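Please check this today:
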Amino acid sequence: MKVKIDNSWQELLKNEFEKPYFEKLTEFVKEEYFKNTCYPPANKIFEAFNLCPFEDLKVVIIGQDPYHGEGQAHGLCFSVNEGVKHPPSLINIFKEIEEDINIPYPKSGNLEHWAKQGVLMLNATLTVRAHNAGSHQKHGWEKFTDAVISKISEEHKNVVFLLWGGYAKKKGLKIDTKKHYVLTSGHPSPLSANRGYWFGNKHFSKTNEYLKSIDSSLIIW
């Protein structure tokens, strides 16, 4: 299966696509999509990359697993398709944006407009079996997304990394903090947010303050 991914990422990651682990991962994903209902749709697996070319990259948000309910996942972490009920973590993200930068809570949970402004919304695992959280973990996706983060750290500069929760912080250990701006907080899930680890992190205003300081255009959250 040829990976359909934006040319800028194809060039950056071509060696990764040729490694034995990625070939095994490809076979696993093909079989899973053939035998089971899986998310996101096959043509959206690399949507985060396709909507945010490497040269346009300003911000990276790291999630864990795609949503596993019908019609939710479309290839961007935390984002859902138009018209889909907002999951709890996304509700808390929007509440923090409302509080932080005074943008009214939106009707749509589709975050494609972030991606098109240079926000890479990267799940650590890019696929999942329907109604079976974590079902595609430990088959190679994590190795691939670690490589993506390392490549961004090495080949780019002045990228804002938003690391929410312990899992994302661990994924971000390879980031060169001398070249990039890293913000950490608790996860926006209710469990973490209700304990005081999410609300008030002001990551959205802090991101834009940093982008302004390097003369980059701001993200319209």
The chain has a mean pLDDT of 96. The first helix runs from residue 7 to 17. The chain has nine helices and six strands. The radius of gyration is 17 Å.
